[in-house]
Structure to design on (197 residues):
């Protein structure tokens, strides 16, 4: 959990840094550059990145919660069935490790959906703040690239989430078949076959 939150938080901190430099100006911001060499400041920045990561992770989870519930409903009749399925595999360390790995990737992709949005907005803002040649072209390019990253991370989050639910249902069904009286639905178009739970 620590690593994925930090990975998300570093992206958020990068976006805030770009905003700060854009508002303060390069000359004013450069006066603070020596502080970056301080171990104390580096530690504080790391702690701040972690705190930002928690906020972005929770915010992203809330915003995508309805979509996540729709995905889960494809394989589990209720929240109780889902909870029972997780309990069913909890005695198998290998399955738990795979589930944790998939959850880690899912959280990183989910957080970076919003980090990508923040970063390209911050970069576009910085381009508008400074007298650069070809600003319109640069803003157009960064906006297109930014949206592609947002879309890419969303698709990755969607595929990992769907595949995780599907594999959890299949694994739990082999342990407690009474939870799934009907055959687990086959993977739908757009599910990622390469991901593991």
């Amino acid at each position: 959990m620590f690593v994925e939150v930090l990975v998300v938080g570093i992206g958020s901190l990068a976006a805030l840094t770009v905003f700060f430099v854009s508002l303060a100006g390069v000359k004013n911001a450069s006066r603070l550059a020596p502080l970056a060499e301080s171990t104390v400041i580096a530690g504080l920045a790391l702690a701040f990145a972690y705190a930002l990561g928690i906020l972005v992770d929770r915010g992203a989870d809330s915003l995508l919660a309805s979509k996540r519930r729709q995905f889960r409903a494809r394989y589990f009749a209720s929240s109780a069935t889902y909870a029972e399925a997780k309990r069913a595999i909890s005695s198998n360390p290998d399955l738990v490790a795979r589930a944790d790995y998939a959850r880690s990737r899912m959280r990183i992709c989910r957080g970076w959906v919003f980090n990508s949005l923040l970063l390209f907005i911050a970069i576009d803002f910085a381009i508008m703040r400074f007298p650069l040649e070809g600003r319109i072209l640069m803003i157009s390019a960064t906006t297109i690239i930014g949206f592609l990253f947002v879309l890419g991370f969303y698709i990755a989050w969607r595929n990992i989430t769907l595949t995780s639910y599907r594999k959890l249902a299949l694994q739990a069904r082999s342990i407690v078949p009474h939870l799934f009286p009907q055959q687990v639905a086959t993977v739908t178009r757009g599910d990622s076959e390469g991901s593991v739970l």
In short: The first helix runs from residue 2 to 24. The mean pLDDT is 85. The radius of gyration is 21 Å. Helices lie at 2-24, 26-30, 39-63, 65-73, 79-89, 93-129, 135-175.
